[in-house]
Structure formats: structure tokens, C-alpha cells
Amino acid sequence: MSLTLEREAAPAHRPPPPPIRARWSRWDIRVSPYLYIAPFFVIFAAFGAYPLGYTLWVSLHDWDLLADEHPFVGLANYRALVADADFWNSVVNTLGIFVIATVPQLLLALWLANLLNRRMRGRTLFRMGVLIPNITSTAAVAIIFGQLFARDFGLVNWLLGLVGVDGFDWRVSRIGSWIAIATMVDWRWTGYNALIYLAAMQAIPRDLYESAAIDGASQARQFWGITVPLLRPTIVFTVIISTIGGLQLFTEPLLFHSGTNPIRGGPLRESQTMTMYMFENAFQPNFNFGYGAAVAWMLFLFIIVASIVNVSFIRRVGRQR
Amino acid sequence: MKVRLWDASRLTYATLVVACLLSIFPIYWMFVVATRSSDAIGQTPPPLTPGGNFGTNAGRLFANPNANFVVGMVNSAFVAICVTVSVVFFCSLAGFAFAKLRFRGRNALLLVIIATMMVPTQLGVIPLYMLMTKLNWNDHLQAVIVPALVTGFGVFLMRQYAAQAVSDELIEAARIDGCSTFRVYWNVVLPALRPAAAVLGLLTFMTIWNDFIWPYAVLSDPENPTVQLSLRALSNGYYQDISQVFAGTAIATLPLLGVFIVFGRQIIGGIMEGAVKA
């Protein structure tokens, strides 16, 4: 025992120990990169990945905020959720608002980008003009548009009145509140997506258009035949981002419905989204973490499925062209 | 002929002008309502030009005990500045490591970071809330600061910029002069990253200033809101003092509007560059 220790302590031929400075420098080169990237992974693990994963665990329990014990109940929360009409109502609302917001938004953005992709005066001014809605907060947008879509004294109803349509109560109509909320989303995000498309359009070599023009292709044909196919990766990217963001819609409908119980998204849950339903169950007024967590995981699955469906749809449309 | 094809036609200009007007009108109208009395909103036709009532509206707003608007503005400024400084520092540090330092697992770890940008972490809000309860951070500002200290988007943006903007020779030269890795970052890399760092800082500041869902979940004490929560408190209820609410949204939007007017070109450049690289 003591013999081995001695042998380890005094090896026969050992190079002289490097000076401290050199040793420190070697350590610096080897360890620094990991040190520099570590903060992201620590923060993401603690406040991103762990909570999302732990949501699954919570969803398998009867986890009431005020109860002392949280018994394991397996899939009971999910079973209850599948039979819960209010949950499916929130699913329909989320998907409905998503479709009527995202489809026009991305088409409009594509069109706007095509217009911005020309030689013109005041380029920066036009780009700033279409991007400016994006700097306002979702809360501010919801407040402003809430007033624009007000039943009494709302500008939208006033404009409708000018063409002879009677005042409409946007908040208590399901499709009406969907349209109002989709308008808020589109107003805030269309210009942003247009700039993303514009960036990708500028990377397309112009010779492609020139040869197409020589072959007599019209501008519309060039747009659908060259621009859109070459933009496909960018379109897929924006569709994924819009799906992830759109299915988590929360602030706009919450602030659109002010009153005693805005988290329900209107008196008859006309535009309660899935995230709102999660909040209603997990926080005020229900404080049932387990059930809310089950909603969160269902929403997570919906996001994955919807992203896959949307992307394969875009791919197929692109191939047919 | 070649050239004419790419010139904007009159119709293009006209359409873009309409698009810009539609973009600007709600913001303009917010200022109209914010400067009018609440009665004026009920007039037919509705008022479309600013009035002179902004002072009294803002006075009512600042005195409103339910909104705690001034506290909200100060809190939001504090949170946004803390997060912005931290995000710029940690993301540029990590971006430098990914772009310019050699280490095992570099590419795989970068892919992990890109993948995390797609994870809807918002859905982890329930355990995150439980975690904050355990740390006793509920209703305290660190609950909204700490989770945002460094972002995958920022790391990726800074990596892309560092890869092309910082020359390897410069780093080598600094090393031969005996600089430690951190000194290389601080004296050589960070100055070269300034344009991208500015864009990241602006985008981060705007995102945090406007953030709603997580502050809404974790800062339930109405005495200690962020500015967006103040706006929510103002607008929530059966009776709304519309001109006061709009004075609030106008004041809460002004800082970002100022930033946008001064740095709009850089912000647009950042969004478009990020798009091409992603």
C-alpha cells in the first residue's frame, strides 16, 4: 500500500512541471469554450426544458394548489380532458383563429415582399412602414383593436354603418371575435413576415427572371414559377414559426374580452384558446395544476402534429407547381 | 428593358402607401384617442385628429391606484435593461465560442441550440410557476429576469455574425501577444461584434418590454406590475375610461417608437439578416 503510493508520487522520468503560466493557458484554451456556452444550457435546462418535461409528470397527478398531497392518477386527467366539451371548444377556437389569421397573413406577406423587392425611392421608409406594427406590444394591440371593434362607437362599426350595415357586436359572436382577433395578429405580423420573405427573395439571382422574361413569361408566371418555389424553405420556416406562435395565442383574446371573467374568452367562451383554458384550470380560478398541465401537453402534441401537417402540405403544394 | 422590369410601377407605390397607412393608422389613432376626452370618442363622425387633452388623461392615469402605471414603467425599464445587457454579454460570449474556438462537440451543441428555438417553452409555465414559488420569487422581478438571461436565438445570431466578422488572424495575433481567451473576447471580438450586438440588444429590449404571458402568470401582485400588466389592469373591467387607457398604451409605446425611429434601419437589417441565415 505504502509502496504503491510512493511509486506514484515519485515516477522515474518525469518532465519538469510546466510553468504556471503555460499550464493556465492550456487550461484556459481547453475549458473556456465550455464555460462560455454553459450559461445558455444552464438557463435553458432550469427554466425551459425542465419545466416543460415536469409538466408531463404534473399532468399525471391530481395536483391541486391548496391540497397537501398530490396523488398519482395516471391518465385520469387526460381521460377527463377528452370528454371535456369546454376543452374541445378551446381546440376549435384555437385552430379556427389560427387558420383565418395565418393563411391571409402569409399570402399578404408574400405579396408585400414581392412589391418591396423592386428598385424604388424611399425603400427604408416603406420597410419601416410595414414593420412598425411589430414594435407595439400585444397588450397595446389588443386594447387598440378592442376599441376599433367596439359595439358602440367602434370605428369598424362606423365604417360598416357608412355602407348601410348595422352595428355588430363583435365580442359576443364567435366568428366575429375570431375575425377581430385574427385582424390583430395579422396587423402585427404581416410586415414582419414580409421582410423575412423579402430577405429570401433578394438572394434569388436575377438572371433567372431575365431569361424567363426573354422566354415571354409574365410577371405573375415568374412569381409563381420562380419566386415561390425558390422561397419554399423560407415559407416552411415561417409556417412552422406561425404554427408554434399561433397555437399558443393568449394575450389578444384575453384582453379583447374584458369584464368579470376574461380568461373564458367571452360569456360563452366564444374565443377561449387552448392556452387560456390551460391558465383557467392551472391558475385563477381553478388552481388545478394537474389538469392544466394535461392541457399544456395536449397543446404541445397539437403543435407538433399541426407543424408536420402544415409543412407537408406546403411541400406538396410546392411540388405540384 | 431589363432595368424597367425591376422598377416599381405607380401601382406598386400606391399599394405600398396604402399598406403603410394601414400599418400606421391604429398607432396614429391611439394617439388621437389619448389626446381627447372620453366623451369625444362617442361623437359621430368619430374624431380623427389629435386634441389637447393628453395632460389631463395622463394625470388621471398616473393617479389611478389600480394601474400602478409609474411603478410598471420603472419595473419594465429595469427588467428590460437587465435582460438586454445580460443577453448581449452571454450570447456574444457563446457565439464567439461557437464561431471561433475549437472544442469537442461544437457542431452537435450548436444544433441543440438551434433546436431549442423551436421548443414552445411557454407550455412549461405551470412547473415554472411552482419553481418560482419554491424560490420565493413570485411577485419579484427576478422571476421575469432570470429565465430570460440568455437566449438560443441570440447565441445563434451572434455565432453567425462572429463567423464572418472576426478574422482568425486577429485572434491568433492577440493570443501570441499573451491574451487569455477572455481578453481576446473582450478586446478583439466584442468590438468587432458591435453592430450585431446592437441589433440583438434592440430586439431583446423590445421583446422584454412587450412581454405579457409570463409576467401575467408570475407577477400577480397588482402593486408590483410590469407596464404591460398595468395596461391590462387599466383596460380590464366593465367601465373603461377610454382616453385614460389609451394615454397608458401611448406612453407605454413611446419608448419603443423612439427606438424604432432612430434605429429602424438596423432593426430591419437584423431581422432580414437573421432570416437569410436561418
Keywords:
heterodimer, A: 321 residues, mainly alpha, MetI-like fold, 2 domains, 14 helices, disordered N terminus, B: 278 residues, globular
Explain what the structure shows.
- The complex is a heterodimer of chains A (321) and B (278).
- Chain A is mostly helical and 321 residues long.
- Chain A has 2 domains: 19-59, no CATH class; 85-320, MetI-like fold (Orthogonal Bundle).
- Chain A has 14 helices and no strands.
- Chain A starts with a helix and ends with a helix.
- The relative contact order of chain A is 0.12.
- The model of chain A is unreliable at 1-10 (pLDDT under 50).
- Chain B is mostly helical and 278 residues long.
- Chain B has a domain at 69-227: MetI-like fold (Orthogonal Bundle), CATH 1.10.3720.
- The model of chain B has no long low-confidence stretch (mean pLDDT 90).
Question: What's the SSE blueprint?
Answer:
The complex is a heterodimer of chains A (321) and B (278).
Chain A (H helix, E strand, L loop, with lengths): L1 H8 L10 H40 L16 H7 L2 H32 L6 H9 L6 H11 L6 H8 L11 H29 L3 H9 L4 H12 L1 H16 L3 H6 L17 H9 L6 H32 L1
Chain B lengths: L1 H5 L3 H25 L19 H10 L5 H32 L5 H11 L8 H11 L6 H4 L6 H14 L2 H9 L4 H12 L1 H17 L2 H6 L8 H9 L6 H36 L1
